[in-house]
Amino acid sequence: MKKNDIRIENLNKSFDGEKVLNNINLTIDDGEFFTILGPSGCGKTTLLRMIAGFISPDSGAIYLGDKNIVNLPPNKRNVNTIFQKYALFPHLTVYENIAFTMRIKRLPENMIKSEVSKYIDLVGLQDHINKKPNQLSGGQQQRVSIARALINKPGVLLLDEPLSALDAKLRQNLLIELDNIHDEVGITFIFITHDQQEALSISDRIAVMNKGNILQVGTPAEVYEAPVNSFVADFLGDNNFFEGEIISIIDDTFAKLKNPILGEITIEMDKKIKIGDYVRVSIRPEKLKLSKVKPVHSIKNPNILKVYVHEVIYSGFQSKYFVWINNNKEMPFKIFKQHAIYFDEEDEEVVWWDEEAYIYWDADDGFLVEVIQDEAR
Ligand SMILES: Nc1ncnc2c1ncn2[C@@H]1O[C@H](COP(=O)(O)OP(=O)(O)OP(=O)(O)O)[C@@H](O)[C@H]1O
Ligand SMILES: [Mg+2]
After folding, report:
1. Cα(57)–Cα(51) distance, rounded to whole angstroms?
2. Domain formed by 6-235, architecture
3. Could you tell me if the CB of 13 is within 6 A of ligand 1?
4. Which of 2, 61, 85, 104 has a beta carbon 3.0–4.6 Å from 30's, enabling a disulfide?
5. In whole angstroms, how large is the CA radius of gyration of the chain?
């Protein structure tokens, strides 16, 4: 147990009889960049405000290090919060906004000067120290907020969607800066976002939330590559879903399911499935292969399906193919490829998506099989 570990135990909260946080258990390591990711209204801000001390839980404990802080007021918790809205003092300059808490503490002027300069450098506002908040861009204002929070030397910095008011490009730049600042100061950051791309690119670990529950905690690669259920599989990145009944267990490695449109599909065997179960399968668009030539059916390529490519979207670094399996609109799949390899010279005369096309994938190509209806029930 380190000084600024956070341990949340059995935390519950209801508003007006409506459960907003449902028995949250979470451990965040000292120095970690930890992200809470989930859709609007899932309880992210409520959880963060509880860590900050602005809301009390109905039950449960929050430990900072080995101390339960649940009954401490916000200013006794050694945590600082940065909000979506900048909340700066409009009449004070950048310098004075950042110096504010040190002045309240009546610290010596030379100490204030050296500390404020240090944090102004850290957030890159050297050229703006005498400006008032209304003379700054949104990104610059948020940098002031970051410096103003960090100068208090909190053990934990809580960030509630600090970038959401900024435009996309600026958001990306500030995200990288935030990552650098985190490396520089080395304290625990708890970052809230509903943007999965933001979460994947910056976090040491991510907690995926929905409807007051934590569904999965893991590194970005873990939650992306091995989602625990179809909500997580769908919320992070893109995915294709289909459902079917397990009709045979081939061996320890593979099983077969039947779907009315897809036919028989070989999937990776999961210990929990058995004949008669109804399962949902998801496979990422980038795991699928697309070919104009029918590949040879083999153990390596057990699933070969004829598709109709009804739309191709070129988006620079990749192309997105929207296909209907067996020309059936009821079974749309997305396939993402890094290069538009299907547009070669031979394709000038023929529109290739009028030809026969196939998708295929290895049965062990990394997808999720979720039992949604147990045969025993
Ligand atoms: N003070 C309150 N009184 C009543 N209900 C509240 C209160 N604060 C939050 N809620 C409700 O609790 C739920 C979770 O709200 P919360 O602000 O934690 O969501 P969020 O995940 O931060 O969403 P967003 O991404 O939109 O910020 C919502 O349904 C919200 O309406
Ligand atoms: Mg919120």
Report:
1. 10
2. 3-Layer(aba) Sandwich (3.40)
3. no
4. 2
5. 26
